[in-house]
Specification:
Length: 176
């Protein structure tokens, strides 16, 4: 059996020590904003678009930008995590579909979720989780809780010493 793979972008958005997750109706799990990378998009562009569509919020990505450039090459904002996720697993153990997920962390200035896209989760399905709530909520997938805690820590650390980089991303690398 052939395994199909799609590229997706996810953003753990952080505001005042908490990250937003929505109760995904179809999947029955709490997830951050994210979705498929369109054919004409770069992963960080999809991440920003998905946050805007699903929450109505503008996000500042915490994504280091490399320093490799030439006439034909440029560095783009890098995800904090790069994951391979099994989406459709059959009883035989075979995997029918996977997501290659560019996972970003980002800062937003508000917790006022107002979806700006079609067929998005209603504001009532969103909840802001603190580090403690991520650790103690048994309904959360372990990877979602762990990455959520890491996102909160990274965004808080960047607020102390980070600078804003290209494409609304926060640059966390050294200044070579």
């Amino acid at each position: 059996m052939e395994t199909t793979r799609h590229f997706v972008a996810t953003v753990y958005i952080v505001n005042e020590g908490a990250t937003a997750l929505h109760d995904h109706e179809r999947l029955g799990m709490w997830l951050p904003p994210g979705g498929h990378v369109d054919r004409d998009e770069l992963p960080h562009e999809a991440a920003i678009r998905e946050v805007r569509e699903e929450t109505g919020l503008d996000v500042d990505l915490l994504a280091p930008v490399g320093d490799v450039t030439s006439e034909t090459v440029r560095s783009i904002p890098q995800p904090q995590q790069f994951l391979l996720e099994d989406i459709d697993v059959y009883p035989t153990g075979e995997v029918g579909h996977q997501h290659v997920d560019f996972v970003y962390y980002g800062r937003v200035d508000s917790r006022d979720v107002r979806p700006d896209g079609d067929d998005e989760a209603a504001p009532a399905r969103w909840k802001w989780f603190t580090r403690t709530e991520l650790r103690e909520n048994a309904r959360l997938e372990p990877d979602v809780a762990e990455i959520g805690r890491r996102a909160i820590e990274a965004v808080e650390a960047a607020a102390v010493g980070g600078t804003t980089g290209a494409a609304g991303a926060t640059e966390t690398g050294d200044d070579r």
